[in-house]
Amino acid sequence: MLDAVSVYTPGQAAEETGFSLDTLRYYERIGLLEPVERNAAGQRRFSDEDLGWLGMVRCLRDTGMPIAEMLRFAKLVRKGDDTINDRVTLLEAHDREVEAQIAQLREKQAALRRKIGYYRDVLALSETPSPCERVEEPQPG
Amino acid sequence: MLDAVSVYTPGQAAEETGFSLDTLRYYERIGLLEPVERNAAGQRRFSDEDLGWLGMVRCLRDTGMPIAEMLRFAKLVRKGDDTINDRVTLLEAHDREVEAQIAQLREKQAALRRKIGYYRDVLALSETPSPCERVEEPQPG
DNA sequence: TTGCACGCTGGAGTGGGCTCCAGGTCAACA
DNA sequence: TGTTGACCTGGAGCCCACTCCAGCGTGCAA
């Protein structure tokens, strides 16, 4: 397979990853991103590998992993293939947390919808006043 | 229906709602919670209504609504029944955001699981070395 | 009558995750 | 030759949502 190795300016990297320039620099500063290659003028040139890793970071970040834990994962990756077991353990734990997060969102969303339904009933009754109907429980808010 | 009106100490309210004492005081301070009743000694006594509202707050907070927006909602609630339409609008918008959040989590979770699967394949191959199998794409991390 | 638990206040501090800024370099174009 | 525009650095600042603290009051039980 012919690996077309590309190189990206900071602006392009930001565009591709959705992280801001400042965030990319910040990630490099704290070691979440390994020191990025530079051109003669000292400007960053991101590689495909960098972008791949940033994709992973985005995935973890968007699922709520704190930076401290991403750093732990990054260290494992850098340590080499011996750490794959540990990486799986870490990612599986995270997967379970994501699952829990979704479950909790669904649950609260259901409550939210009940509330909306309650308000709708109130509105329906006030539009068509008929003394026989009644919305059961008064609700907070 | 016989409303057994209860009253709760700050400690009990914290217990019931899962918010810390400091958070309850903070919410009152910023106006997310209306000024709570006091006993002769000036200590807070939370009502069932307070707890009900705090339940709503917990639901909104746990689904990621920022405090500023909860304050907007709180103001509508205080303004009275004329605002029920606005409240529905606000909550429906929030419901859509929750939906989007869940969708995004599911999507990223799928990527996460592909990654875990990839690692598992790598592990399986290194345990049972057989040169015919190959894990397709090298992955970042 | 003292000791402890619980609560009060105003204000300062914290932690996470960026975000902004001044002052500078460099390359390309008009 | 001058002016953009993209990028550099170190360090300060910001926002959110709490969290902690000193110093104080109250009420009950041993």
Largest sheet of chain A: 2 strands, antiparallel
**Order of adjacent strands in the largest pleated sheet of chain A:** 1-2
Strand and helix order of chain A: EHHEHHH
Determine the oligomeric state from the structure. homodimer
Provide a descriptive summary of the structure in words.
The structure is a homodimer of 141-residue chains. With 141 residues, chain A is mainly α. In chain A, 64% of the residues lie in helices and 3% in strands. The first copy, chain A, is built from five helices and two strands. Chain A has helices at 10-17, 21-30, 48-62, 67-79, 84-127, and strands spanning 7-8, 46-47. A two-stranded antiparallel ribbon of chain A has the order 1-2. Chain A starts with 6 loop residues before the first strand and ends in a 14-residue tail after the last helix. The mean pLDDT of chain A is 92. The A-B interface holds A 49, 52-53, 55-56, 59-60, 62-63, 73, 77, 81, 84-85, 87-88, 91-92, 94-95, 98-99, 101-102, 104-106, 108-109, 111-113, 115-116, 119-120, 122-123, 126, 139-141 and B 49, 52-53, 55-56, 59-60, 62-63, 73, 77, 81, 84-85, 87-88, 91-92, 94-95, 98-99, 101-102, 104-106, 108-109, 111-113, 115-116, 119-120, 122-123, 126, 139-141. The first copy, chain A, binds a DNA duplex (30 and 30 nucleotides) through residues 9-11, 20-23, 25-26, 40-44, 66-68.
